[in-house]
Fold each of these.
Amino acid sequence: MSRRVAVVGAGSSGLVCMKCCLDEGLEPVCFESSDDIGGLWRFKENPEPDRASIYHSVIINTSKEMMCFSDFPIPAHFPNFMHNSLIMEYFRMYVNHFQLAKHIRFNVRKHRQASLSHKCGSSLQLTVSMCVADPRPEHKEEIRLFAFWSVGC
Ligand SMILES: Cc1cc2nc3c(=O)[nH]c(=O)nc-3n(C[C@H](O)[C@H](O)[C@H](O)COP(=O)(O)OP(=O)(O)OC[C@H]3O[C@@H](n4cnc5c(N)ncnc54)[C@H](O)[C@@H]3O)c2cc1C
């Protein structure tokens, strides 16, 4: 059985974290409190409580050569300093290319995690409890066991 890694947040950090897990033969399960990827870079007309928000015209101040994922170049026809909509487009290309979507659980907020508490064979596993924003009964509260967890937020 592959070792599962809890990744918290599907912003740029969480996305690359999932991809690195897959490279290492680990199984990422990403918990994203909102209903989409992108984190800070997903512009919303009506900002959500507790979430930082960019404004509509924001252009990133990091060049595409500096900010791109090292194994997934930003398309040549994208400008060097991208508008936030192109950053989101790039993130979606990354998710599609590495087939990350199936590993993401949306509308799930990591609420707390217990301390290392469970021994399974030779490895310690972590109990993660989550409080869920989504009303679906099967997602009300969930306790899962993970070998590791990583905060991508
Ligand atoms: C105002 C501002 C301007 C910036 N401008 C630039 C810039 O020009 N260039 C640059 O390179 N960087 C900039 N940054 C830095 C920015 O933080 C990074 O570019 C990038 O967004 C960090 O990605 P992240 O995945 O770590 O966090 P985020 O993009 O914040 O994503 C975190 C994700 O985790 C989710 N999440 C949070 N808590 C939980 C929880 N408890 N359970 C489940 N999910 C959760 C959130 O919904 C979100 O989707 C800026 C930051 C700010 C605040």
Amino acid sequence: MGKRKASVRSKMEPKKKVQKLATTFSCPFCNHADSVDCTIDLKLRIAEVACHVCKESYSTKAHELTEPIDVYSEWIDECEKVNVPLSDDHRDSSHDDNFV
Ligand SMILES: [Zn+2]
């Protein structure tokens, strides 16, 4: 008699990880959350992140594997480089031009 085979597979869709890559980030300059958008142009091989609040932007080279987060972190890196404050104990002043 009707052996009910467990054909009642509960509709468990294989969890497709909706891997929505984050493409908005918070701005390192104005600190607005999600104000930074990333665009990657693989034709021109340029990736750009820009804050629509304070209009800061940064662009870099892009390739197939470039992800928004990469561009963003690169930007952060750059910012940190640029913002390296004139720390007092930064003895290595190889270029102390008019330090007023
Ligand atoms: Zn900003």
Amino acid sequence: MVTTAIIQATGAFFRHGGGSFGAAGQLGAALASGGQRYFSSIPATSELKAVLAQKIPKEQARLKTIKQQLGSKSLGDVTVDMCIGGMRGIPGMLWETSLLDAEEGIRFRGYSIPELQAALPAAVEGGEPLPEGLLWLLLTGEVPNKAQVKSVTEDLRRRSAVPPHIKALLEALPVDTHPMTQLVTLVSAMQTESEFAKAYASGIHKSKYWEPYYEDTMNLLARLPTVAAMIYRRTYAGGNYIAPDPKLDWAGNLAHMMGFDDTSALELMRLYQTIHSDHEGGNVSAHTTHLVGSALTDPYLSFAAGMCGLAGPLHGLANQEVLRWILDVKADVGDSPSKEQLTKYVQGTLKSGRVVPGYGHAVLRKTDPRYTCQREFALKHLPHDPLFQLVSQLYEVVPPVLLATGKVKNPWPNVDAHSGVLLQYYGMREENFYTVLFGVSRAIGVLAQGVWSRALGLPIERPKSLTMEVIEKKFGFSPAK
Ligand SMILES: CC(C)(COP(=O)(O)OP(=O)(O)OC[C@H]1O[C@@H](n2cnc3c(N)ncnc32)[C@H](O)[C@@H]1OP(=O)(O)O)[C@@H](O)C(=O)NCCC(=O)NCCS
């Protein structure tokens, strides 16, 4: 007989069919309370949802006025370069949660990263912001107080039960499946839980779409740390899973369930989860989630689609590529290379027809402030780490080499240039996993915007595509035969 149990002793729930899920004591306690049915434990109301509900009518009215009074105004021309060059610079979507300035970097609801670090409540006095606070800010546009952040942490904890089939599905995959493929598989499979899909199927009025979308958002966010940690422990720790600690916050628990309890590692995870969350709407993972969601696909499948995009090496997978590349640099030139040795190595990477991972950006034209805040974290917590020193040296060497190509528009480091070195320092050495951590964070931004997209009734996305022939004919251009 398959035993059914919920590991409840720790305050969050993993239901499983017998076997080794959690420490033996916790498993024993769970079995004592066993036989219960899995339930998703959705609270009837939450303060966050109530604040959001108050804001929505005003924003709906605002959008209606914009449509009526400004709908026919032009936001600029579209050049042929923009059309064939990945739609760079075309203002083609509404994205409320964050805005990217090419020179200054990201602002979340108007707040820069240093401002967030000062304004959002922290787990440790003067420490890194709690991502739950950022979620509140992205959803409501307001900086929450400590009690409000605590209410989100508790709400997420109550919702954190992972459906039973997820563990079985995870363990059915080959253990060497890339962690991003595992994430996409498990997130898609959790779609069985979608409140939005159920509500749509039973004919919910469109004015109410945002409510089940919000529930899915909170449930999915609540479960992602467990799912990510399960992937990590199964792939790299023989399936020896760790139960959550009910005293910990959302990001702290992610580090804990992965097996890292150092207080600075928890702080790093809080910072990491905050800064990777949102980068306005046009990047591949955000845009994909938005595009798929615009067909009224539920948040689970939309987010899984976004994660397929994040798994690309020019986007989120770059953090994995960066660490590999840095370790290759180290293997080639040693721990304390000269500037000349590093310059030669970077030139070699370019000559071999590859990109220098962690450098460049489609929009940014300065050093990414997400890089800068990670550098500051390193200066505070690991100033003497040899890999950090190498990253610092590369910061001086790479930009002039990229500039010398004459084609790279932004030679400066992006978020991915730094994250792997920090994770590595705390023992998270498996770089294949890094993009999963990025993905957990990205969920905060894209799902918060998803709630607003449904609340504002944004339509299905459908840009116009052209053929080369149409472009040539439009400008009276005859191609050489
Ligand atoms: C992020 C990225 C995809 C942006 O691409 P983009 O908007 O097309 O960038 P640009 O307009 O500056 O590209 C112009 C040229 O410079 C090249 N280039 C840009 N960044 C480069 C880099 N880091 N290393 C080598 N070449 C680079 C491009 O590949 C392109 O070459 P091509 O004309 O031969 O195709 C690009 O900078 C890149 O590949 N970076 C490395 C991967 C990375 O770190 N990704 C994470 C981004 S957060």
Amino acid sequence: SFWGKWYQNDILVSLTFHLFNLHGLIEHFHLDTMKLRRFLVMVQEDYHSQNPYHNAVHAADVTQAMHCYLKEPKLSKSLTPWDVLLSLIAAATHDLDHPGVNQPFLIKTNHYLATLYKNISVLENHHWRSAVGLLRESGLFAHMSSENRQLMESQIGALILATDISRQNEYLALFRTHLDRGDLCLEEAGHRHFILQMALKCADICNPCRTWELSKQWSEKVTEEFFHQGDVEKRYQLGVSPLCDRQSETIANIQIGFMTYLVEPLFAEWARFSNTRLSQTMLGHLGLNKASWKGLQRESSSGDDTDPAFEEMDSDVLPQETLLS
Ligand SMILES: [Zn+2]
């Protein structure tokens, strides 16, 4: 419908503006609401609406999830307005100008971004630099000191770079070590920023923690984007990337691998950090959704339990029992 379309097209602007207002950021940082709206419109327009998954709706979804994590008691009582500001901007911009293909694709096609960022966190660096470009262009923080603006840019960078899924093990190992030692001190800015990195990582891959109906739709969209890349790779004989071959992959196999090797280990640690009803609900949905995909996998009798592509990414997997205890 017209209204449905209109609402969806405007979702990132309206949600983020609403959250800025809700968290008192407009007042606290003396933001010009016209500039804020213009900044958010530019952000929204720099997402590619033709991407099935990496578009402004995904960015809005991640921003909404981030807001929920910021409100968790353990975080909310120690966060400063500055932390909230950076978290919401990083969430809204974390996939800015995403081309709808992954880093290996950019590297093998000699894309200028791969060259520019020397094949390291190519997409995440691009999302961050694009966000910085729009922040400067909008003049939203022109009234702040240049030291603060520089600090903001680098801290937003640290948050966005943490969403590089191929580096999840590093972040997770550090998170686990802190939780084992019980030495996280949220009065320290450095520790708070580490937790915000973990929160943004959770927000970015929380699709399987939503209800089945929502989760299933996200899964279909991300698979559509993967398979489209695989089609292009086949057409130009570039070698099909893992998870991108519609002939040999299924949504169920991809999702079960994704949940087992990436989502479950991350959310198990998050629930240790913030053991709340929200965390338990997310782990509950995760377990149910995985069971649903396993049911569908059995129905289609497509074979393998998990996708080997994920095993290369994450070797230490928590046993399933610890997740729901
Ligand atoms: Zn994302």
